[in-house]
Each structure stands twice: as structure tokens, then as C-alpha cells.
Design a protein that fits this description.
Strand content: 35-45%
Number of helices: 1
Radius of gyration: 16 Å
Number of strands: 5
Largest sheet: 5 strands, mixed, barrel
Order of helices and strands: HEEEEE
Helix content: 10-25%
Distance between the termini: 49 Å
Length: 101
């Protein structure tokens, strides 16, 4: 049991120590509808950072309202957000999101 607790502490501590996520302002929208991403089917939340788009893990496209709303939906418009998280395996692992518009 002590070994299991030690392994948990080491793994958890290592994962926290390796997070370099700082808050940054990005474009947030539907990867398929607005950013032209084709590696997944359907509508999925994505961020665009320095002209490169990444699908998001940790938040869903409908977490912020109807994705197809004409004025605020991610499938219809690109929104600005302040986020934190990390790029891992060409995906953005999101920790926090604050919509700016």
C-alpha cells in the first residue's frame, strides 16, 4: 500500500510540475465549421494559437451554449477566449476557459 501511495504522489507531482500552461488569449470555435479541420467528423471545439488549430480535450463545444446559435455559437462565429492548458500529442488539453466576447 505504501508503494502505491508513493507511486501516486510521484506521478501526480510530476504531472503538476510539468504543466507550463499560462493564460493566453486565443480564438475558440468549431474546428470543422470555422477552422477547416478535417481529421474528425462532426462539430468539435478547437482553439487557434499562432495560426495553428488544435482540437480541445477537457471542454465540449456545447458547454458554452448552443453551438449553432447565429450570433454566439461556435459553429457560426469565431470567439475570443482567455485559456490555460497544454498542447499534448497535437491536441489542446484545456484547464480553464473565459470567453471574452
Amino acid at each position: 500500500m505504501k508503494k502505491l501511495a508513493f507511486i501516486f504522489i510521484v506521478v501526480f507531482g510530476f504531472s503538476c510540475a510539468n504543466s507550463n500552461s499560462e493564460k493566453q488569449t486565443v480564438e475558440l470555435s468549431c474546428g470543422q465549421c470555422q477552422f477547416g479541420m478535417t481529421s474528425q467528423e462532426g462539430c468539435d471545439l478547437a482553439v487557434r494559437i499562432d495560426d495553428k488549430a488544435y482540437f480541445v480535450d477537457g471542454a465540449n463545444i456545447d458547454d458554452f451554449g448552443d453551438a449553432h446559435d447565429k450570433t454566439t455559437g461556435f459553429c457560426e462565429v469565431i470567439r475570443t477566449a482567455e485559456i490555460s492548458g497544454d498542447i499534448v500529442d497535437d491536441r489542446f488539453k484545456i484547464q480553464t476557459v473565459e470567453l471574452k466576447d
